[in-house]
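hey m, so remember when u said the tokens were messed up on ur end? i reran from scratch. heres the input so u can diff it against urs
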Amino acid sequence: MTTDRPAPTLLGRLVRLWGGDDRRGDVTTAVTLFLLGWLFIEVGLVDMYTWNPPLTTEPEPWWRVALLAVGCAITLAKRSRPVLALAGGVLVTALDVVWGGSLAITLVFWDLLYAAAMWSGPTARRWLWATAVAVAVGGAIVVGEVTRDVRMFVYGGLQLGAILLVPMWWADNVRQKSELAAVERARADDLARIAELDRHEAVRAERAAMARDLHDVIASHLSTIAIHSGAALSTPPDAARDRGALEQVRTSAVASLTEMRSMIELLRADEPRDPLAAPGRLDRLGDLLELARADGTVVTAEDPDGVAGADLPAAVGHALYRIAQEALTNARKHAPGAPVTVRLAREPRPHGGAVLLEVRNAAPPADGGGTVDAAALPFSAGTGMLTMRERAEALGGTFDAAATDDGGWAVRARVPAEAGRENAGLENGRTRG
């Protein structure tokens, strides 16, 4: 596929070549310095310093061009051997000064001094600065003593400072900006890695939340299906009883599919849904208890404070509903036929206003009534207690499950309601799983 980009002009190519930060750019710079210096020599920009008496005879013009060529050749090593190249440049500049000096060699010396300050090590740069300052100050003093003129002292100091210190200051400025840019790039990379780690952590937390919800939603309904189907298979055929068992199996299967459909819709949504759209809230606790009673379990509900109908944060209601659902499922599986009591209460405000949930079942009947074949029960993942504890502690609450004195079992959860409001954003992301 072709593009309509305009062809680069000759001037643009020369600018890119001359400004390139690589070996090709060094060659281009050397050639440019040679051509520019040759032009300066031809127009007579030489004899910058007047010696009286002259230190040597006036050199031929081609001598200056040859010296310029040597200086430009030395600049080719300025990147790999900056200090050595500067030493060679000092010798070339000293000979040029003996001949009276020229602007062409001054440009070469500037380039070598800039390269030494730019690419040499910290120790070499410190020595370079100390030497340049000493030469600039000492040269100004010498000029002032020779001429006995304060103006010449100032002029000599400014001239030596411009020749020696300005290229080094420029190089330090460029290097510091480059180092700052490198630090910013490294910081951006670190932030990108941190963001990636946060993303992985969020994915891991989301997977854990999905595993919790899938366990709580499916385990309860599948356990009901297994209990009713196992009971029907373990007793002699009876049309009325078998039909009732099938109706309960169908009810649990439809409820399971409904819950799964709601969760899949939340997972496939492009935008986060309102947390109230998540399946399973405390105001639906009555439906959960009716489902347990349909299995033949005697369930008693105690809610003196009207917690089930209170305006609780969605995260709190969802967590308590799932804990109650799992606790009832465990009671039906491990203590079939035993009565169950579900109690909700609200702590007084001075104590934090937390919501208390207790699901207590008595000991199983001694005659084994209501038991079902263990092989008919669904395999347990062994995560029921863990998911209930995680749900309570995720909202800053506590969880406890232990045997009672009468041989039964009790599950207790305490969830701070106000903490649920503060952590609503976090729990919303979890409930979407």
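this time it looks ok to me. Residues 150-234 form the longest helix (85 residues). if urs says something different then somethings off w ur setup not the seq
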